[in-house]
Specification:
Helix 1 (about 5-35) crosses helix 7 (about 220-235). This protein is mainly α. It folds into 3 domains: about 5-120 and about 135-175, no CATH class; about 245-425, no CATH class; about 440-479, no CATH class. The protein is built from 16 helices and 6 strands. The strands form 3 sheets. A two-stranded parallel ribbon has the order 1-2. Helices cover about 60% and strands about 5% of the residues.
């Protein structure tokens, strides 16, 4: 057989790999639990040590275990307990910690040698019967797991290296001689000092969901797993990093501006205030787009021709991905100004906005999650404003025809709901428009009367007619 043995070897390798990953994941998770519950972990470790010592004493008197090895195990666990004095902090150069590491190795070796040399075979009438003085593999494995390895592994998961402890904890033990700090409470120059930026509420002290001190007081097991993971990630890094379009350098540049100034700018072109500015530079930095005719990569050309409203939608999408409420508010305000009726937009622009916000999630045209529906309400409000203030009848009809597809069902439902909720206001708006038109008609009549030539009688007739219309209009307004 050739294939089956190969499959066996592959299975062994994969099984060992999965077992290693499972152990590493378990240690990492336990380390995070200990970070969350340090007081309980310390009490549990003390109880584990007392329990193991009690088991060793029982094994000594009941099962006649060797006195020397049992005494070594009891003393070793007493030294293990000394590492809990400043739990969960441990200094890697502490003599007690180094002695504990040596005792773990010594206990493992001596107990392994003890069980490898069983007592001589006792004579009985059945030479092939099992000698009950010889422990089974299960019993030996249980002894090693509970009495030799349990407490050292628990300490390995729970204790935190002194190099990972913040100097602000005020512990000379953690930051004294032998640690990575020059003097107690003082970090070396290479240590990254914490700095916060008030703009937008972003600082280096942002807490993670698991623990604010994650990465600063991490357990040794977690630090080892994290270090291996970072090493593997470093080895597998590509030569070039291709970011998706929504992480375009210009967008990231605006985010950095927002961090420091609480604002960002679209930087429009001189000839068109709704398009991003372009320049024909040899080096295209993260503020301006390259010229259209320049040799550029797909990433550099990702924002070529982008409009201001789409730019702000992309910033809003990044804010959603970063869970950054301040940037979302800024992008929303920018978008609100971009669709304001003070700067009229075409029906095509509003149609694109409808597609970007009302397309079902997962669709190619959908740009933002918009879980609270704020952008959808803004777009509907912009459409209503343009319909009542800017667009003529033909433009309104063109827009209505452009949003009749099934993908725009959400927009039509929201539009109708807002129309029904504001029906009274819309009636008042129509009435005001009619009154304004009538008033303008009176003004036009007066101007026409003044320009009429051919005698006072004709001029007076126009004036009287204009006054009559004005009285009628005044009466309507007060009714």
């Amino acid at each position: 057989m050739w294939i089956l043995p190969l499959l066996g070897y592959v299975g062994i390798v994969l099984g060992f790999a999965f077992l290693t990953l499972a152990i590493a994941s378990g240690l990492y998770y336990l380390s995070e639990l200990v970070e969350e519950h340090t007081v309980f972990a310390k009490k549990l470790l003390y109880r584990l040590i007392y329990g193991v010592v009690a088991i060793q004493i029982l094994l000594l008197f009941v099962d006649k275990f060797p006195i020397g090895l049992s005494a070594l195990s009891v003393v070793s666990h007493g030294i293990y307990a000394q590492n809990l004095r400043r739990f969960p902090v441990v200094k890697l150069t502490d003599p007690l910690f180094l002695l504990s590491c040596a005792l773990v190795i010594a206990n493992h070796y001596l107990w392994f040698r003890h069980f490898s040399a069983p007592p001589p075979h006792s004579y009985n009438s059945y030479p092939y019967s099992r000698d009950f003085n010889i422990p089974t593999f299960t019993e030996i494995a249980a002894f090693f797991g509970l009495c030799v390895w349990l407490v050292p592994f628990a300490l390995f998961v729970s204790l935190s290296a002194g190099e990972n402890v913040l100097p602000s904890m005020g512990s000379e033990y953690a930051t004294g001689d032998g640690s990575s700090y020059i003097m107690p409470g003082k970090a070396p120059e290479s240590f990254a000092s914490s700095s916060g930026v008030g703009a937008g509420g972003i600082s280096s002290g942002v807490e993670g969901k698991r623990r604010a001190r994650s990465g600063t007081n991490a357990g040794m097991a977690k630090a080892v797993v994290t270090g291996v993971r970072e090493w593997v990630k470093y080895l597998s890094q590509p030569e070039f990093l291709n970011l998706p379009a929504h992480f375009h350098p210009i967008l990231i540049d605006r985010i950095v501006d927002f961090i420091y100034t609480s604002d960002y700018h679209f930087c429009p072109a001189d000839d068109d205030v709704t398009k991003l500015k372009q320049k024909d530079f040899v080096f295209h930095h993260a503020t301006l787009l390259p010229a259209i005719n320049a040799n550029k990569s797909a990433m550099a050309a990702a924002l070529v021709g982008i409009r201001d409203y789409e730019f702000h939608l992309r910033m809003y999408a990044l804010a959603e991905e970063l869970d950054w409420d301040a940037l979302k508010s800024a992008a929303y305000a920018k978008l609100f100004g971009a669709v304001d009726a003070q700067y009229p937009r075409s029906t095509e622009t509003l149609t694109e906005l409808v597609k970007a916000t009302f397309t079902p999630p997962g669709g190619a045209a959908r740009m933002c999650k918009d879980e609270d529906g704020a952008l959808q309400q803004l777009v509907v409000a912009a459409v209503l404003t343009h319909e009542t203030k800017v667009w003529r009848e033909d433009a309104r009809k063109a827009f209505t025809d452009s949003v009749q597809g099934p993908e725009h069902d959400g927009f039509r439902k929201t539009y109708k709901a807002i129309m029904q909720a504001n029906e009274d206001l819309l009636k008042v708006k129509d009435m005001v428009k009619e009154l304004a038109a009538a008033r303008q008609k009176v003004i036009d009549q007066r101007r026409k009367a003044k320009s009429v030539m051919g005698g006072d009688d004709k001029r007076n007739r126009f004036l009287m007619k204009a006054q009559k219309m004005q009285k009628t209009q005044f009466k309507k307004e007060h009714d």
